Structure formats: C-alpha cells, structure tokens
Amino acid sequence: MTRLPIEIKLSDTRKEKPNPNSLIFGRSFTDHMFIADYEEGKGWRRHRIVPYAPLQLDPASIVFHYGQTVFEGLKAYRTEDGTIKLFRPQENMKRLNRSLERLCMPKIDEEAALQALTQLILIEKDWIPTLPDTSLYIRPFVIANEAFLGVAPSKKYQFIIILSPVGSYYKEGIYPVKILVENEFVRAVKGGTGNAKTAGNYAAGLKAQEVAEQSGYSQVLWLDGIERKYVEEVGSMNIFFKINGEVITPAINGSILEGITRKSVLEMLRHWNIPVSERKISMDEIRNAYEKGQLEEVFGTGTAAVISPVGELNWDGYKMIVNNGETGQLSKRLYENLSQIQKGQMEDPFGWVMELKSDLARLA
Amino acid sequence: MTRLPIEIKLSDTRKEKPNPNSLIFGRSFTDHMFIADYEEGKGWRRHRIVPYAPLQLDPASIVFHYGQTVFEGLKAYRTEDGTIKLFRPQENMKRLNRSLERLCMPKIDEEAALQALTQLILIEKDWIPTLPDTSLYIRPFVIANEAFLGVAPSKKYQFIIILSPVGSYYKEGIYPVKILVENEFVRAVKGGTGNAKTAGNYAAGLKAQEVAEQSGYSQVLWLDGIERKYVEEVGSMNIFFKINGEVITPAINGSILEGITRKSVLEMLRHWNIPVSERKISMDEIRNAYEKGQLEEVFGTGTAAVISPVGELNWDGYKMIVNNGETGQLSKRLYENLSQIQKGQMEDPFGWVMELKSDLARLA
Q1: I want to staple A298 with a disulfide (CB 3.0 to 4.6 A). Which of A86, A310, B147, B296 is the partner?
Q2: What class of enzyme is it (chains A, B) (predicted)?
Q3: A104 → closest Cβ in B66, B199, B207
C-alpha cells in the first residue's frame, strides 16, 4: 500500500481531559478529528487531521432528509507497557464498506482508512485513559453532504473519524440486565437495512427502548418482523443462548447486524471446543428450554459492553429468570478472555489485536 | 393563538434567482430560512428567520449516527392575482407531529409552525415562480443535534424550514412512467418506521431505485415485507389502481405513509361518487384484473408530482401495459382538478387551500 498523504493541522489549544474515574460513554471528544471529502468523478480526497470542530453543512444536505449515513465503532486500549492496541480494526473497515454499498454510498479504501485512524490515534494518544476498563472509543462515519432534495444518492460525502475516552460499561463489574421481549415494534426485516450499520436502524429502535425503560427494563429483545417468533438482536447487540450445554446465536439472515464481537465469541467458543450453533431460534424454544431447566445462560455481545449477561427475559408477562439473575460462568469467562486479549493482558492466540507503534514520525 | 415572537434578521445580500424556465427540483434555495431550537426542560425557543446558511453541527450530533430526523414537504403557489396559496398545510404539521412522536422527538406547536412558515414565505414571496406548473417547495424538518454517542433520544433539536423554487414535475405535461415491482428489497414493515416521514425510510429505498433505473424503470413498486404479496407504495408516493370502475388504494396499515395527496384524492373521488376502496390489494389480484382487461388505470400520488400515471408494471418479467401506456382519463381529471385547486384556478369546494395575505406588517 502506498502511504496516504494526510495533511495535519494541529489545534492551537488543548481541551482539559475529563476525570478518568467518571467517564461517560460518548460525551467528551478529543482535540482532533480526521476528515476526507468525496465528490463524484473525483473520488476520496483532501485527507486531513484537523482540530475537532463543528461540521458546516448546507441545510439541504441529503443526510438530514434521506438518511444516507453509515458508521462503525471500535476501541483503542493503552496497555501497561504503554503500547496501543486495536481489536480487529480490519473487520470494522470491511463492514463499513458493506454498509456503504447497501446505502448506495462510495466505498472507502480500507487500508487508507485504517492508516488515517492509526495516525489520528497516535496524535491523540494522551487521550487514551489508562484506568482499568477504560478505553478510547473510535467512531468512523460517512455522511452524504450534497445539497439536494431529490430522492437520489448524494454525489458528495464526508468520511469522518472522532474519538471519545470512555469508562467501563459496567460501573461495578459485569452485571446482568433485565430484557423485555418486544412484540409491537420491529427493528428490521429481510430486504431492509438491518444488516447495515446505518442510522435509520437505531432511530427505529428508540421507541421500543423508551417503552421498555418505562417498565423497568434495560433493553428490548427484537423478534423477526415477519413471524414475530424468532429472536434477532438485543438492544443494539447480538444475542447468545446457552441451552443444555450448547451455545446458540441467531444465524446471519439479512436483518441482523454481523457483529465483530459476535464473530469473535463464536471463534473463541469453537477454539474452546464448546458446541455452538448459528441458526434460527424461536421464543417458544427458549421458553421450553427454560421450563425444562435447560436455559443456562443468555448474553448480548457488542463493542461497548463486550459481554452483557441477561438476568431476566420478560415475554408478554411471562418472566424467565436466567441463572438466578446472576452472571453465568461462560459469560464471565468470555468477558474476561475477550477484554484481557483486547487490553494485551492475555496472550492472543487468534491474531486479533493490532498493535500501534507510537513512533509518530514514522507515519507522518 | 398568541402571536409567536419571531426574530428576523434579513440577509445583506440577495442571491440571483434561477431561470424559471429551467428549474430543477430541490437544487436552489431562497435567501432565508426559519430555525427554532429545542432543549430538554426549556422547550422550543429562539424562533428566528435568518439568512440561508450552513448549519454548524458537532460531529457527534445524534442525527448523523442514529438518524433522529423527520421532515415534511408542501408547496406554495402564486396565483394570477398575486395571492399566495398553500395546500392543506395543517395536514403537514399534524403529520410532522405524528412522525416526531414515532421517533421519540419533541412535538412542535402546529399553529406556531404554520405561522413561522407563513412569515418565511411572505419574506421570500418574490422567490415563488409564476410560470405555469412552477411553485415554491417548502421543506420543514427537525434534526437531533445533541453531541452524544449513546443510543438514546437526543435532548437537543433544531426545527428548520427551507424553501426551493421548483419547476413542473412533468417537463411535457403529465407523463406515464414504467414501474418495476420490487421482490428483493423492502421499504418498511409493520412495527417499523414506514408510517413516519423519516430519513431512514428513504435511505432504505435507494438501492432498489438504483437497480430499477439500471433496467430502464423510473421507480419501484414496494410490496409488503411479510408476505411479499401486497402492494404498499410506488417510489416515494402512494399508489392507486382503477379496476373495473372501482378505485383501490392500499389501506393505512402501519408501514405505508399516509399521504396528503392520497387523502385528497380519496376525498375528491368520493365527492365525485366514484367507488373507492381502501384495502389490501395483492399483485395476484392486479395480474388477474389485467388478464381480464379490467386494469384500467394505475397512478401514484404525492406532493412533488401530484398525480403520476403508471404506463407499465413489470412483475418478475411479466409486463402489464396499463391503458396502452397512456395517461388515463381519471388520472388526468384528478391531476387537473387537484393542480387547479392548488393554484386557485378552480373553485375549492373542500376548503383545502389556505390563502396568505401578503401584508407582512400584519404578521411581523
């Protein structure tokens, strides 16, 4: 790969860094951001790292009206020896391109994007928090910024990367949540955009989340939009069930997002010789397993929480208490292994972790 | 209603107006726009008309990542005697509130919004083109602008109205289009956001539109996402079929947008004592009617085109040529009546048209 020319304009001032003991997810942002512009016929250009600042967008920009936007999320960790580690960032760039394709948006150069991301992180390396369970959350996203009210793909885009220091998802360690099975609202359906990481999927989910919270539940369990029988996702995470020793997760079906943590959990379970199955799983099957005492563990997987154990499932008023409402052994083992590999505290037999050399000069 | 205080800051410079003979939909915008800000706990405030200019938004604004945004579209006409007419604008404001509710966004005051819209149009009245079949397109929209990467409803919003002078949708009069029945992609499903006017629905439709255009078709006919049997919409319009003297349109079902032109067409047909039916209609039924020679007319309805006759439907390679590929009598009659009522060239027995007094002082 040829080295991408990235113009760098450093900020004259530096923000005060937030207290690492009280970091909130996605609230504070670093001093700089990466931007590249796309124009039809000219491709991606003007790759630059500039001070973090408001975007200036025409009010008629397509992103506001017709939702052409996709994003990714990943984390950088700073290990005890000062090195910076990224978890499978190539997978994020691959998925970003799959999302872009679904939304009729121009693909990015995956290697160039990774290089831009690397360079931005190295500039902002002092923003990576070092307390246990803290990290630097990375949000690459692409928005359509042509000023045009016709319903058609934009001819102009911006690819942007912003960084946010984040704390532990679990304030008091890994913590089981209560989940409401959603019967009214639908997140996505085959033929729609559920398998792309695009804004509309998240907008569609807010109402159900609001209703669930009013009843004291943390998240909703999404069912398929066609038969309203089969499990799809939990909140904005993938979901796993351990039933009678076997781990089952819904198969990729066109409406489920193909999570990178999901993929890693499957690979880790197979590495451990634990039986796993990617297939359709219905609420009836889960209820039957529960009644037989075989519903051993339930957990969500995602970048933000890594592993999120489920302590209760409420399906139309029928409450299933999973593993006495406590974190299961497998959930715990997966969480510890994944997060320790991510942070470099455990050997990485999978080759998942990318280590950044903090030699900025070499990259500039 | 109390008169809303709107702060007005007029632009020091005025743009050159586009040639009224070659107006393109949604490409040029007037000198000013309306903006109001919302903040949780403070409500809507800072209602203002300001020079049309880029919006300044934090890159972490929720609209870019989680798609909290809704919009409306309507038109202002300038009639021969110089008065300005709006078509059922109250309906747009009602629907805007229904969309806002679905997306967990704060409602607007419908009367205040209408007043803001009126005032903006009066300031921009010289931008309303007067050639036949031209109008001023009005785009009210609301975006979430809190800088936060958590998946939750924003605590901050902007309500914005922009205006665009537009030409005739049909360059050479009303013109029948070729439509491809869509079997792979799905626009929306019950429980999703299909009945809200929100960005994600339009983003989801772009791919199918791209594929249809590659095969020489103008738009796609959307089928339901569950059985893939029943007709939903055409492109971003509602759809009507005239079969054996009866006019049929898909009933509002939770995934179809409740169009204001759709509603007006139904009211006009009932006023004319033409049999109408709002119900499920399958592709099988349409094919059967076609084979019996009873598929008399097909047309789409929407603000941009008013009535858009369909000359051909292609369902998996089976081509149905409607009314010899020509505009049907009923389509023509509806188009003429609706557009003449909108422009004040025909009496309005329905009370649909709102007339603006161009006495700016009275409103300021």
Answers
A1: A310
A2: transferase
A3: B207
Question: pLDDT tens for residues A329-346?
Answer: 999 999 999 999 999 999
> Given an 8 Å threshold on Cβ–Cβ distance, is B206 in contact with A66?
yes
User: Looking at chain A, which residue has its C-alpha nearest residue B235?
Assistant: A151
CB B159 within 8 A of CB B142: yes
Residues in chain B closer than 8 A to A54 (CB atoms): 56-59
Residue B202 has pLDDT above 60, yes or no: yes
Amino acid making up residue A151: V
At A319, list the tokens. 């409450």
Give the domain extent around B202. Answer: 177-343
Instruction: Determine whether the interchain pair B26/A148 forms a contact, defined as Cβ–Cβ distance below 8 Å.
Output: yes
Question: Could you report the per-residue pLDDT of B215-267, keeping only the tens digit for each?
Answer: 999 999 999 999 999 999 999 999 999 999 999 999 999 999 999 999 999 99
Looking at residue A282, the DSSP 8-state letter turns out to be B
- Residue A3 pLDDT more than 70? no
Domain presence at residue B111: yes
Residues of B in contact with A193 (CB under 8 A): 200, 203-204
Give the largest CA-CA distance in chain B: 64
Distance from the B24 Cα atom to the nearest Cα atom in chain A, whole angstroms: 9
| A265 is a domain residue | yes
Closest by Cβ to A162, choosing from B60, B143, B199: B60
B318 and B297 in a common domain: yes
For the record, the structure tokens of A20 come out as: 């690492």
> Do residue A163 and residue A274 come from a single domain?
no
Distance from CA of A155 to the nearest CA of B (A): 13
Residues A164 and A271 in one domain: no
Do B163 and B182 reside in the same domain of the chain? no
Tell me if B97 sits within 8 A of B105, measured CB to CB.
no
CATH at A223: 3.20.10.10
Using a CB-CB cut-off of 8 Å, the residues of chain B touching A184 are 191
Q: Does B165 or B174 have the greater pLDDT score?
A: B165
User: Of B168, B194, B215, which one is at a domain's C-terminal end?
Assistant: B168
Give the pLDDT confidence of B7-45 residue by residue, as tens digits: 999 999 999 999 999 999 999 999 999 999 999 999 999
pLDDT, position B175? 87
Of A103, A150, A186, which is closest to B25 when you measure between CB atoms? A150
**Whole-number Å distance between alpha carbons of B225 and B222:** 9
Considering the domain architecture, whether residues B29 and B69 belong to the same structural domain is answered as yes
